[in-house]
Structures are given as structure tokens and as C-alpha cells.
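This part of the workshop introduces the protein records we will be handling. An example says more than a description, so a record of this kind follows:
>
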Amino acid sequence: MFIGVESGAMPLLRLNNVSLAFGHRALLDRVDLEMFRGERVCLVGRNGEGKSSLLRILNGEVTPDDGELWVRPTTRIACLAQEVGMDSDDSVFDVVAGGLPELGRLISEYHHVASELAQGENPAALQRLSELQHELEAANGWQLEQRVESVLSRLDLDSDAMFHSLSGGWRRRVMLARALVAEPDVLLLDEPTNHLDIEAIMWLETFMLDYPGALLFISHDRAFVRRLSTRIIELDRGQLTSWPGSYDDYVRRKAEQLEVEARHNALFDKKLSQEETWIRQGIKARRTRNEGRVRALQDLREQYRERRNRSGKVKLQLDKGEQSGKLVFEADDIDLAFADNTVIKGFSTTIMRGDRIGIIGPNGVGKSTLIRVLLGQLEPDSGRVRSGTKLQVAYFDQQRDQLDPDKSVMDNVAEGSQHVTVNGRDRHVASYLRDFLFPSERLQSPVSTLSGGERNRLLLARLFARPANLLVMDEPTNDLDVETLELLEELLMDYQGTLLLVSHDRAFLDNVITRSLVFEGKGVIGEYVGGYSDWQQQRKTGKPAGRSDHNPVVTSATKTIPASKSKKRSYKDQRELDGLPKQIEALDAEQAQLQQAMGAPGFYQQDKDEVAATLARLEAVGEELEACYSRWEALESG
């Protein structure tokens, strides 16, 4: 049965009974698939299931072992691969324009000649520019040239930069632009949001919502999947299944399916065990044995061998180390600039033990720089940073620089030893790495042979094998499958240490962090209670959240007092409503005074009872404010 959504229309492409295996492992086992114009299909599955291999088959890069790929005549297909291997001496503009095979060369040459003329008069260049203008006009190429410029701008790409000089993340962004400008009939995207900031991700979402062709994409970004997908297809143990509807519908129905499968397997195993016991009863069994029952047992054994068992889940444990001091960081009026670029301006904050802080902002704005300043790795131009006591820092680097690509999987974690110590318990490294889904046969493989998702899992394994009460994670979600991502979320939510998290994954931020530091332009860093959605809501309401003088103990989200509505109320209710603004104003003022007092350098050197009383009052004020806002809304709506 073909996996598709239309009954009458002709598909753009079709997989018919396709199989693909690496060694003895079947990635695709006689799968079928159809794609139609207007579909936005998300391909999900665990790391290593074969999702990227399926995209390469559809793009014609890999020939399946068996079965057929059919593509409707004249259908154009473009693909963004997960790993960017292309190296080139061309400029970024040339690489992107190369996505337009017919006119890309003309557009690139026009761009270069125009740039040359901008440097000074050149009669030959002027003549060539005129010829190119005529050729582009004749081929209706101006629209395509504008498309290239628009995509370059939206993805914040420097058109004149040389492709080979870019980092892996920026090369990936260039190749995404190359795939998008082609506007093919079928667009295949493998983890398109990796290395994009939130603004670029949201632009990509809007672009794809209006895309007229068919889209098949792999993504771990649940917010991206929820907004875009019209259908989920899942690759699970070699089989491809279709789940029409939203991503949340898929999650619910998949959980129900796995529950039914587990119950069925349990009943099957019980019956098999009973029959195996019967066949082994020796002489007594042979007297009563019938050939039909023996054949039935042989069938059960064969079914058991062919059962598609799910591989285990990643088991994440984090050694929180010894408890740090209550104060982790205190920053006071920090300024930092590089040449004329102001990165941090007038930033102050207090980070306490147990805080989970999200750092949000566009690529290149200075998020990693802020972390380096807080950690004392970079000196600010002015202001000061005070670090707490007994800090044990573990740093997850988005570039994975802590992994040696030439060393084995095992040596990258154990550094030549056969054992690691986790939570005070000595474990063999092979056993520990099995928790991260690395089988024993992969332990001696060099890191350079691992996929992006496997490298991220290995970096987590390396990180979590060391005690840490301060966890710094810079883009930890790239290339992780959703299942591992959700397990990491659960681990971080239960983590008793302090977390600094840089991420562009909106769902991950919402689920993990309790406070946001947001780069708002010109070096200004705003401070907001809650995650990404909380920040967005506070921006919409127009009530500014506190910046650096807000204390992390405050847990009630900022709210805007709603405009008064003309409804009949009792005299008592009206009096109460009229008095609420003054009450809220007084509580706001008290909250600000308490936060200012807690921000003073000697606050935590006071008597412990005074410190505790201030903290308790601040928490109580937050609760009173929340109650006032709730009462205001109740009176307004009632």
C-alpha cells in the first residue's frame, strides 16, 4: 500500500517496494511512498534509522538495493543534506545562484561585474554589464536575481564572502539558500533549522507555508514541525508508516500503537514460553506430541526471530557534583565592545544556585561572549563579575571542539582508561556508552565516522561522566532525535545545579528554562521571567520585564493590567477594583526595593536570618502580585 494522501491526482514521485541495507542491517525494508504537490511532510525517526539515506534515494544520490524510484517527467528535485561536504573557491553569491541551473551563471556574472564597476570606471566592464542586462531581460532573469538577493538577505549571508572560508554552520546556511532559490517541485530538507537563529527559523516557516511544491523535511524542532507539517511519516525499524494530521496527533496515536504492540508481544512471549516448556518435557511430551503443534511452535520461533524489536532508549544521568555556593554569578554594569561593535552594554544580573537561564538572540550577537564573560574567560571593558564558590563547570560546545575526531569513541570519553566514575560509582566505559546507544562494536570507531546525532550523544556522554554543578550548554539540541531531546529536557528539569543554555529551539527553551536573557540590540540585554513564549507574551503586552535588577527568585510572570470595561458591578466589587491599581503599584515598588537590596554587593554577607527573611518576603510579594492580577481579571470579566 502506498503512503500518500491523494486518490485521483498524479504523484510527483513514488517509491515502490524499496529496500536498502548496510551490512546485515535493513534501513528500508520494502517501503512504499508517494508525494503530492502542496504536501508538507515531516519524516521522523530515531538517529541512525536511515532518514537521511531515504532522502538521498529520493534525490537520486543513492540507488536502493531493491525496488523502484519513479519521478514524474520534468519534476525538479532539490535537497539540503545534513552534512555539507561541498568545498568551493566560489563566492557565497555564486554558490547560491548555482541553485538556478539555467540562469545561475548569468546572474553570478552580473553580480561580479556590477561589483567591479562599483570600485571604479571600466569601459569593458560597462559594456559587459549592458550585454548581461539584455540577456537577463530576454530570459526574464531579473525576478530570479531578486530571489537570490532576497534569500541571501533573509538568511543574513554575505554574498561576497568565499564559501571555503566559512564555518560548517555558515556553509550549511549557504546550501539551504541554494536549495531554496531553486524553488523545485520537490524540496528535501535534512534538519534545515540547525545553525539558524529564531528569526531565520520563523522566516523559513513563513516561506515554506507558501511553498507551492511538495516539501519533505527531517527536523527535531517540534515548534517548526507543528507549524509546518500536514502529515508525518515515520521510519521505524525499516518500516515506513504514514500519520495524517498534526504532529501532536502523531505523538498521541504512536504512543497508543506502542502500548498495543507491547501488550501483543507480552502475550506472544507467554505463549512461546509455554510451547517451549511443552516441547522440552522429554518422553512424556513425545507420547502426546502432535506434528501440528510442533509446526505451530516452529512458526512461533520464526515470528519471534522476525519481530522488529526497538533498540533501547538513551539513559541520561548527570553527576551534579558537590553543591555550589548559593550565589553563582553577580554581574554589575558590564560593558564590552570589539572595535565599534558594542556587544554588551550596562548589563547587570544575579544568578543563583538552581537557576535555569536561557540566553536568546540572533547568531553572532554575542551569546557565547556573554557566557565567557560570566565564566571569567573574557574581561569586560568596564563593570565587574563576581563568581560564587565551589563551581564545577561542564561546557557543551556547539562546535563539538571537545571531541577529537581522530580518537575512538571510547577514548573521547574515558581518555585511555577502561572505566568512568558517574555519581560516585565506577563503571566500565562500554557499559556506560551503551546507555547512550553506542554498541560495543562502535567503541573503537573514530569520531570522524559518526553522524551529527551520534557526535552530540557522545559529547553528552563525555559531559555527563564528570561532576558538574554549573552546566553550560551551547546549542545542545542540534541533530538529536526527538526522543533523546525529550529525555534531555527531563534531565535538565530535574537537575539540581545551575544551567546556562543557549538555544534557538523554542519548545526546548519553554520546557527547560525559568528565566531568559534576551539580546535586544545595541548591546542591551533584557531579562524576562520564563521561557521563549513567556518572553514573546511580555513583549506583546507592552509591559517591560525587568532587566538586570530583576532577581531570579521571582517566579510570577509579568502581566499587563487589562483596560477597564463598562460592566455593572456591586458597590463592593467596584470599590475593590478601583483600589487594585494602587495596591499593585505599592507591591511593584516593594518588589523593586527588595530586588535592589538583594543586588547590593554585601547582601549575602548579612546575618542568615535577615537574608532568609528578605527572600521570603520577595517570594510573598510575587504571590500577592499574582493574586492581585488574578482578582483584577476576575472582576473585569465578572
Remarks:
- Residues 544-566 have pLDDT under 50 and may be disordered.
